[in-house]
Fold this sequence. Notes:
The structure holds 2 protein chains of 2 kinds.
Chain A: E1 5-7, E2 10-14, E3 19-24, E4 29-37, E5 44-49, E6 55-58, E7 61-65, E8 71-76, E9 85-93, E10 104-106, E11 110-115
Chain B: E1 5-7, E2 10-13, E3 19-24, E4 31-38, E5 42-50, E6 53-57, E7 64-68, E8 74-78, E9 87-94, E10 106-107, E11 111-115
Parallel strand pairs in B: 2-11
Antiparallel strand pairs in B: 1-3, 3-8, 4-5, 4-9, 5-6, 7-8, 9-10, 9-11
Amino acid sequence: TQLLEQSPQFLSIQEGENLTVYCNSSSVFSSLQWYRQEPGEGPVLLVTVVTGGEVKKLKRLTFQFGDARKDSSLHITAAQPGDTGLYLCAGRSISAGGTSYGKLTFGQGTILTVHP
Amino acid sequence: KAGVTQTPRYLIKTRGQQVTLSCSPISGHRSVSWYQQTPGQGLQFLFEYFSETQRNKGNFPGRFSGRQFSNSRSEMNVSTLELGDSALYLCASSTTSGRLTYNEQFFGPGTRLTVL
Lengths: 116, 116
């Protein structure tokens, strides 16, 4: 079973601060996705990273995929109250055969609260 | 394009009962995946259907089952409900089966199931 460890679990910061969320695994993933989920809604995809060492930027959000494709990070610059939510990383398995191929494994999530 | 819809949004059942949840994917999407989300376990993969065939399966007991119809709509059923089945059940649709690296999933708002 592939596991994704996400840290920290909770993050409470002031508006304007920077933060980083980490997603680590001992398994290699074919791709890794980051989602944001707000109360009462389903997760919304933010980004997909595919290549080891890849860095993607989405406005104030920077996503990085580790060289070995086992870990990823999400960095938010100058956080705003609108960034508040549950951030989830999800890795797509590459095990050939069986029923695990192509499955998305989610991390436990990071609850981010940005205070004005 | 309308998003993924799930019905009902909220459901209260008692132990021992069975429940059926429904998911209508985005028009043109042939893959539907189901997830269970709880505070303790996070988001866990239940199963994925593509063109009416179950392609992937998570580690859940046989009480959890699903099916997909020819119009790609999907239902999941939980029999002999237990207190621990209380959760948010999320459905996600995508254009292709989860075996592709770039496969983007679009989530519905979920069905909140409470088992008393």
